Amino acid sequence: MARRRRRGASSAGRARPALLLGAAVAVAMLAALGARDLIVRSTAPVLGGPYSLTDAAGHRVTQADFRGRETLIYFGYTHCADVCPLTLANIAAALDRLGPRGRDIVPLFISVDPARDTPSAIAAYTARFSPRIVGLTAPMARLQPVLAEFRVTARAEPAAPGMAADMYPVDHSALLYLMDGDNRLLRVMAVDTDVATLTRTLGRTVDHAPRPG
After folding, report:
1. Is the pTM of this model over 0.90?
2. Quick one: 188 and 97 in the same domain?
3. Long-range contacts of 204-212 (CB under 8 A, 24+ apart)
4. Second label for 128, Cα 20 to 30 Å away, from 14, 22, 117, 207?
5. Same domain for 69 and 25?
6. Owning domain of residue 39
7. Computed over its alpha carbons, how large is the radius of gyration of the chain?
């Protein structure tokens, strides 16, 4: 009996490292999902909040200006080489596909790079994709609370060797936030959502949204 107990203890001892290894692998897999997928899949955090920013014409804009209309918010910057232009192009294409059904959705492009993204720079950039896209910027003191509300991270990186110092990239989180007419979060989507899926999602939203009589 004593020998059997020792063998059992030895077997359990061998199992513990395996369990620990399995737990470590599971943690690593969760980390590999990245912040984007964790935020997209999570329904617990409350994302979003009030904002006070400046549009391409230099006017102050707040969430109250879009009351009663859905907003599709994307945080990016005009010097972005790939993700930002592709995302804005997909948004423009999805809204074009919706036609009149999407007239109450306002796409907002909020800059995370206010040092370079002046109102005029924002105006020229958004015009490349759609006249419907509202570009917004603000000094960092006003922008930072908005980034915090939407759990957006943004960090300027050094410019590549041989490039001018002001040609730096900005590493930032990239998500689409669909807000209802009272600036409450309806859905968070990945920026690589294809045009067809984005169109369907926006279409379902506008079809079921309450409208003033």
Report:
1. no
2. yes
3. 205/70, 205/105, 205/178, 206/70, 206/98, 206/101, 206/102, 206/104, 206/105, 207/101, 209/70, 209/104, 209/180, 209/181, 210/181, 211/68, 211/104, 212/68
4. 207
5. no
6. 1-44
7. 23
